[in-house]
Amino acid sequence: MIREYIPALLENHDLTPDQAEAAMIDIMTGQATPSQISAFLIGLKKKGETVDEITAIARVMRTFSRTVCPKVDGYLLDTCVGVKLEMEPALVEKAIEEIGIGFMFAPNFHPAMKNVASIRREIGVRTVFNILGPLTNPAGPNAQLIGVYDSGLLEPMCVAAHNLGAKSVMTVHGRDDPRVQIVAANAAAGLVLCEASEDMRTGVELALNAVENGRGLRILRQLIVLSGGNPERLEVMA
Known about the structure:
Blueprint (H helix, E strand, L loop, with lengths): L1 H9 L6 H12 L5 H14 L3 H17 L21 H10 L7 H4 L4 H10 L8 H4 L7 E5 L6 H10 L4 E5 L6 H15 L6 H13 L2 H13 L3 H7 L1
Parallel strand pairs: 1-2
């Protein structure tokens, strides 16, 4: 079925939600060939993804994330701060409940993505799959702060997140500001979204205080230990 939609995309015709959903089902179930998947992704990118297409594709991916059981191979991203990213879902839940923070490694929670992993690497350009992660969060958060790589995605991603059930959403696009300012601004936005701060100014103050008094670093250390990661990496950076 996905084959039927490729000519339409190349002629800059939008897909209906049902068509986008059907194409994504073909991809997730392995019915689409690598060539068809590549053509579909490039065609969609060339045309420009609509909110309806993004929403429909994300809905399908959410469904497959709930029905396929992920496997964990213990990969450790110790080149960064030492957090073991491939944590089992139960451990991520425990981290969120006990520490207040957790990390969901996309391949762990979206195993059906294996059908497109090698294709994405080979075509070497950003596609709709680069923006699906936040929209298909298996935790189903009702408040989301979403970063996008292109300012043109600010509104579409925000609307799509609302379409998928989020109540409070903020989309952001970064600049080359000092790292501390970026961290503080991101944290402030998150605090506002979850109603832990009444405005961005107060949120920035709270975030900077957490950096200065070491609370943020302590929480990160706890996450590293709970994940079974490598604390020595963080000590090198600190």
